[in-house]
Amino acid sequence: MALATTLANCLNSRNSRFDTIRHPYTLSSMATAEAAHVPGDRLAKTLLLEDDIGYVAAVIPSSHHLNLAAICAQSGRTLVLAHEEEIREVFKDCDLGAIPPVAMAYGMHTYLDDALLAQPEVFFEAGDHQQLVHMSSEQFADLMVGAEHGRFSRHMM
């Protein structure tokens, strides 16, 4: 599969410099990091959250757990993880579980954990379960302009 259309349009509109990495089919972010031979701290994982107002996305390293209380405090909202059916509806051009971090391109408020920006490079899903986008952290920061920054994840033990 090629890049998700929305992602490709976003990368092109920002003149992003990136390459792609193919990897064996995986169903979890940590399995993806292992299969692609990339550090979990450098692989962005996108989680879709919701409340009565609507959806938001949280982008954290795949080696981290979301601290839901922290993102609720930062957003001032009572958020919960969205259901799989809703994720399919929002990210129509992506496979379930292969959501790229540019949720702003899908029209939603996005929160970016600063732990990702501390890395020299970032990898993220291209919209399927067999391809990652790879770019420098500077390029990633440029791509994620408009995302709200914060600390709302913790490293898995």
Automatic annotation (TrEMBL):
<feature type="domain" description="YbaK/aminoacyl-tRNA synthetase-associated">
    <location>
        <begin position="25"/>
        <end position="143"/>
    </location>
</feature>
<dbReference type="Pfam" id="PF04073">
    <property type="entry name" value="tRNA_edit"/>
</dbReference>
<dbReference type="InterPro" id="IPR007214">
    <property type="entry name" value="YbaK/aa-tRNA-synth-assoc-dom"/>
</dbReference>
<dbReference type="GO" id="GO:0002161">
    <property type="term" value="F:aminoacyl-tRNA deacylase activity"/>
</dbReference>
<dbReference type="InterPro" id="IPR036754">
    <property type="entry name" value="YbaK/aa-tRNA-synt-asso_dom_sf"/>
</dbReference>
<protein>
    <recommendedName>
        <fullName>YbaK/aminoacyl-tRNA synthetase-associated domain-containing protein</fullName>
    </recommendedName>
</protein>
